[in-house]
Amino acid sequence: MNTLESQPRYLFPKRYADAVQRLRVASGFVLLFAFAWFSKPTLQSMFFGIPLCFAGLAIRAWAAGHLIKNERLATTGPYAYMRNPLYAGTLLVAAGIVVASRSVLLGFMFAAAFLLVYLPVIELEEQHLRNLFPEYAWYATTVNRFLPARKWGGRVARFSTAVYLRNQEYKAAAGFAIALLWMVFKYCLGVRSR
Fold first, then answer.
1. Running DSSP on this structure, what letter comes out for residue 82?
2. pLDDT tens-digit series, residues 123-139
3. Least confident of 93-102, 120-129, 152-161
4. 89 vs 53: CA distance, rounded Å
5. Residue 10 pLDDT > 90, yes or no?
6. Residues 151, 60, 145, CA angle at the centre, nearest 5°?
7. How far is CA 193 from the centre of its chain?
8. Most buried in the list 66, 121, 149, 181, measured by CB within 10 Å?
């Protein structure tokens, strides 16, 4: 049997993935409140965490400038190196926030949300792409899900600011700016209370 024609094995049943897909936004709000409550940033923790956040935001922005949803399989820009650069960027941003916040509990919560909510959603999205684009099967055997590896040998395209704006990726940067202001505020509160 040709491996490209057979369906890949997924970690999560489709029913579960469908259910948690509806919880993705709600889980984001839970994580937001947990971040607001449990963060205890210091200058040193922000010094190490914030660059990770910027790296993640840069990857997300780069990916958003190459993603034309449901019209064309994204294989250019960061998609030439990994299948899910938006989620990889999100992971980097989350890791940076955890480091900057100095909260182990927050780290566990972010990890649980990624494993139990986002990973099943990623699998659903991959099933959707497999059904929408016949070439996805070959692409998926060539390019890793998260870790950058070999470069996909497909077509070349430049970053598109118009596509970036259509994908509204600037909202991620705005959300991070608010998180950064909150960390600075909490740091200043902590300095005053000493």
1. B
2. 999 999 999 999 999 99
3. 152-161
4. 8
5. no
6. 45
7. 35
8. 66
Full-model pTM: 0.87
Full DSSP string of 105-142: HHHHHHHHHIIIIIHHHHHHHHHHHHHH-TTHHHHHHH
* 175 vs 146: CA distance, rounded Å: 23
Phi, psi (degrees; rounded to nearest 5) at 103: -130, 110
For residue 158, give both structure tokens: 């430049």
Mean of all residue pLDDT scores within the chain: 89
Q: What is the chain's alpha carbon radius of gyration, rounded to the nearest angstrom?
A: 18
Degrees to nearest 5, angle at CA 117 with 143 and 141: 15
The token pair at 119 is: 């990973």
192 vs 194: CA distance, rounded Å: 6
No. of helices (H) and no. of strands (E), the chain? 9, 0
d(CA 106, CA 127): 30
